[in-house]
Queue: 2 jobs
Job 1
Amino acid sequence: MIHTWSSLISTLFLLLLCVTGLPLIFHHEIDELLGYGPKPEIARPGAVKRSIDEIARTALANDPGRVLQYILWDKDEPNTVIAFTNNKVDGDPDAATLRAYDAHSAKPLGSVGGGPMLIFLKLHVDMFAGRPGKLFLGAMGFLFLVAIISGVVLYWPFTRRLSFGTLRDKSRRIAWFDWHNLLGAITIAWALVVGATGVINTLAEVMLSQWKATELADMVKPYAGKPPPVHLASLDATLEKARKTTPDMNVSFVAFPGTPFTSSHHFAVFMRGHTPLTSRLLKPVLLDGETGEVSDARDLPVYLKALLVSQPLHFGDYGGMPLKIIWALLDVMTIVVIGSGLYLWVVKRRKHRSHAIAGQPLLQPSG
Amino acid sequence: MTAARKPRSSGNWRAVYGGPILLGVLSTAGLLTALLSEGAGRYFSWIAVGAPVVITAWFFARRRRT
């Protein structure tokens, strides 16, 4: 009963998530193919990178009337700088414009993250329904986890007489039943990990608000009541001070004062480490928006670390192209599990009526 | 019937859950190694996370032969 209903309620949305998730695994490659992945020019050997202040000025000149929210350095594209602009520092994330700039020439390289993949991404993340849509999909993901776990419990009575991997072709229904069991059982760890990390991701904004209300509020206490900065400090000087505070780390992104990732008085420079794991575990350094002096630097709380570590485990983008292909195949297998489950439910319902008359149950636990 | 190659009188939990548990542990190990190590861990993760796909294909091929 739990298995049937938890799956049925979530089926359509899970299919949507699996189907839109499939191209998203190759988001980066597809964007590049369609010309939405800006590539830096090949720099002369020994070429010097432009100052970040210059790139910031170029970004503002490119989008007049807007303000900078974030500047980001992609781990895999060291010669590209990505600037986020918006109509105000705490503007709607959907209104943000992302543009890439060449680190050596400061030339604009085009916008980032647009194109048809954005539609898949929006469908996958919140179905164009903002935060409620996101939390709703989180709930559907939670039902997916319930369906998986209840499926494990049901697996025993249905397969206790069959060896693992039995695929019968007695009838269409039994064939799909065996596929449902085999694929469901064999993908279980992956499906639980991708499902659970997906659910955690839907709570990202809630977690960020929690961090801002507790830890960040505590870190910026000395600034309470002060007016927000009027003249912002030099970005290059600010970034240099952040690097000195966390010597073994690189800058991942800088959040401008007033944006959702920092206070209204501070630049927050988020630093990353060098290994696959530590490059995900960001450490924020808060710097005074006017003087660029370091105010505080603390590790993120456990829940935000869990969120950051859970992201690659959801996206499958952390083990090269072979892992992405495996991710796609496992996703297709999950689609078959969900589809066959729906099929089995429909058939059972249809046949239930005729068999109720004959007094013969259809597919039952072997006892 | 090709189905119950080895019919058992009662259930044997190892025969039923053994395969999935083994593959589950392997998959989880693979998912985590790629996160923790870049070199050899990557190769292991491809094998470990990919194992369910390969074994499914093997079950499918075996079914055709019988």
Job 2
Amino acid sequence: MNRGSLKPVIFEHAVLSIGVVYSIFPFFWMIITSLRSSGDAFNSDSLLWPTKWDVVYNYTQALLTTPLPRFLANGVFVCGVILLLQIATALPCAYAIAKLSFRGRTFLTATVICCLAIPFQAVALPLFVGLAQLDLLNSYFALISPFAVSVFAILMLAQYLRGYPDEIIEAARLDGLSEKGILWRLILPASKPAIAAFAIFSVAAHWNDLYWPLIVVTEPDLAPPTLGVLFFRSEESGDQTGPLMAAATIVTLPLVVFFLAAQRRFVQGITMTGVK
Amino acid sequence: MGATLSICDLTKAFGQTHVLSQISLDVQAGSFVSLLGPSGCGKSTLLRVIAGFEAQDQGTVSVNGHSIDHLPPRARNLAMVFQSYALYPHMTVGENISLPLEMERLSPFQRLPLLGRYAPGQRMLMADITAEVRKVASVAEIDHLLDRRPAQLSGGQRQRVALARAMVRAPGLFLMDEPLSNLDAKLRVTMRSELVAMNKRLDATVLYVTHDQTEAMTMSDRIALMMGGQILQYDTPEAIYSAPAHVDVARFIGHPSINCIPALNDAGVVVAEAERCNIRTVEREQKLTLGIRPEAFALRPAPTAKAVLGIPVSLDRVELLGPEVLLWCTAKRTGRVLVAQARAADHRSMVASGLLTGSLWLEAYGSGLHLFDPSGKAIPIANALSAETKAPLVAVS
């Protein structure tokens, strides 16, 4: 880099830094508030750095006085089952759209794309009414079933599979593999990067989802972490910000760990490199 | 054992484009047959119809006398080697080769991951399969690569793995779609002879698609030359070269390609380059094409009596190929570019004795001449008088 371009670089970094501070500050505040005593949080003298630490109390409160571990287990279970179902439904559909020729393929693809435009809020009420009629509210089924098929997953995997060589699939047909066998033994292993990338989207979306659990779950035993924190907040009064932020930190942590673990695959999947 | 393949009146169109029209072909058991033609002539489509990847519009494909049109690819008892090799990328070489056998011999339960190995009889079957994979791998000289993945192999090694995977089921018919086109020139020559050796050793029928005439000429028992979705000639390599049935066959085969000269039919005597030639035909057609192979031409400092055709030319360019030279000439009367091939030693001695300085004639004698009618079909030369008869050169017009 030559000297002439130093000024624009400083400017660019300044702009970017504002963005970084803007997105990191809430987390920063959440974490330091979880480390200090509740009274300290709104004290203007110690807004950015704690004066009175209260780590042990905050975290033991968060973990012991509320069923937070139970909320976390609920979240892991619900997100895990949703992800598995989404992959199980999206992979065959994506394979069919990308690699098989059958009557109505164009129509099916167009329909799938149209479905992407339907906001979840539009179907939430009919789903709620349906689940209520079947007496299935307050169940894991209610939390999971609306998300078992992901249109986004179908389109993303189909796009990825279009790059898979046709000749390999033909060789497999000659070697005696059925379409099911091709899906299981060739397409699934080849789709790993795309599946990992999708998993991040899916898990992040459903781990952080508050809207749907709030509608279908009123029982604390079934609550996923986001809803659990909400219960926690309403049970305890507003001066318990320390334990509340400790709970929020504990809820956020698994997602960060998950993202770091899947990050490399994520980048691979997003850039959609070929299978060669 | 090799299978016989017989194709009858096969027609295939993609929308309005006719890719294959009325293809008929009989391949004998154990023979090596090439489908040769320029790209887009329909040869790969024909192979894909035989394999069952595409359905034909009309016609039948039979193996050993039984129609296979209703069968899915896996039930057709044939193996294919693809241009890109199409190895399964996340399986090892050993798994790639054993997959066809596992699919053939194990039940769905025995194939289950993890659980499958506890199925009754699975261990014995797998031991047999592993032994056969080792045997085929040692024949293909890849037994040291069984634990590698395709990405870790060179092009030549991948080619051998693809061959081994095709051979392991011992099918009656091998389909090969330009399997050598991704290899470097040296390896291609080695693999050519290995493929022929495999064909003889396994006594398997091979249908080999290529656009490379050298491959087709050197490897095949017979060549089916395809153009525009039709088979123009199906014959031995010798006959394809020395007795082309169509002007397009004559043009496609041979390097450099054949000299084609428009000719007129003057009451049974062929007139080319404004010369009455000592070539006669019984055809009535007026406009003919006279084809002369480069090696049938000889460059002479003066016209000789035994030539059936002599064209005054000027020599433009000499290309040395090694043992041979190509002599690029221009016909003096029409400006047509003609090429002759001569032995390099003969050419050197002519240059040394100063014979190539004055006016020159390109002469043809009895052999290496072909006549084609306006539709391109070969027509017999009635009495091209051979060199021995020493017929007088017909007078210059």
